[in-house]
Amino acid sequence: MTTCDTLGTESVSLEMLQRYDRAIPRYTSYPTAPEWRALDPDAYIGQLTKLRQDTQPLSLYLHIPFCKSMCLYCGCSVVLNRRPENEERYVQYLLREIDLTADQLGSNPQPVTQVAFGGGTPTKLTCEQLTRIMEKLRERFAFDALGEYSMEVDPRTVMEDSGAKLAHLKDLGFNRVSFGVQDTDPKVQDAVRRRQSYESSLETYERARAMGFEGINLDLIYGLPFQTPATFVDTIDKVAAMRPDRIALFSYAKVPWLKPHQKAIPDDTLPSTEDKFRIYLEARRRLLGEGYIALGMDHFALRNDPLAQAYLKGTLHRNFQGYTLALAQDLIGFGVTAIGDCRGAYIQNVKELNDYYASLDAGVLPARRGIVLDHEDQLRRWVIHRMMCQYYIDKSAFKERYKADFDTYFSVEQPAIQKAVSDGLLENSPTELRATPTGRLFVRNIAVIFDAYLQKQGGVGRFSKGV
Ligand SMILES: C[S@@+](CC[C@H](N)C(=O)[O-])C[C@H]1O[C@@H](n2cnc3c(N)ncnc32)[C@H](O)[C@@H]1O
Ligand code: SF4
Question: What's the CATH number of domain 28-334, 3.40.630.10, 3.30.750.200, 3.40.50.300, 3.10.150.10?
Fold first, then answer.
């Protein structure tokens, strides 16, 4: 057996690594997006109407798709734009969508405990535009004073004005910011067309700290061109030295059939599967050594951070933005491609700007795709998310919740579970199913065992690789 690396007492063979480096979902949702179908906007209104009847807290997500240039690795939903009038138009429609949605929720809105702006690059909007959006949200929803208000920030967009926009975010009530860094090595940055000096990332970070943002996250990606374990360690050391509260360490998701610009990254510049895994292991080892706690697959947080606390208490949640606090059960998405998770249904807005504008011009909410989860979906979602968030399934908790014996219910899955046990990924006892330290590194491969849709398709789907 060629041992690629060791972690604790477990070892990972190259054969196993290659076997598990297959195309599988990231399970930010279950059922995963390819299973969603066309959805009538009235079905969405039906879901929203259910929210009227209670006072459960709400989470809001606003998608701002614009970017000035395209980073070659990018897998996000992006609209390249250099004309300010396009952004102004978008903001006006976003305000309309907020009004139209809030109208469905009645006059006694639920408290909002979480607002996240993602993109694209939300900080490409002007201070005045961001103010208008926040004013509209506050007008139509009741913000909880202790809520989490976060924005994804491209450091390059807030360097230009010496911190004025960052300060403005603080004034608008944002208490968390997330900065895209990816890699500090100029050679990697050139290869992905994202030049962002380490000094500028550091300066942005220090400004945000000085302004008193309660939580700062930095995004990194491993598996990018020209990365090696040695070069990426330098990025990790620089980033860990800043002491951000959270670090997202994403595996490069290569999905060129969805994002054709990724084809501009030659395959032969990418690290091999083995090297990519080594880069991850070394990065993880150093972050743990620096006092970070590993949460799920790709997030790290300092022990006193609320996300780390949620992990330690077993209340970590997973949604489209990755691991989050479970501050609200329902999520409403605004903007093109935005996804909501509302009363047991996933709902996604149209993907094209023109369709988004046309729908709102007609006074119709732009939701067009989604799925209403049936009992089986909900049960499997619970299992998959428990495994992704906490690395184990408590079989008696399953029984209590779903009135079924775990092993009997998942009898079809037993051979796959046993295979994962013999590969050293899982420990299976009468009371729980638990990922081993090695299994944690392949947790998507464990989650996939419970994906009934992929089972029906013989395990074949178009997703990024699992390692
Ligand atoms: C919307 S962007 C962050 C905000 C801003 N646009 C920026 O780049 O600084 C969200 C994050 O997704 C991650 N990301 C984008 N494309 C990815 C891919 N193909 N694979 C893995 N992570 C990716 C990056 O780490 C990026 O910072
Ligand atoms: S990584 Fe950020 S800045 Fe780069 S294209 Fe994607 S969303 Fe835009």
Answer: 3.30.750.200
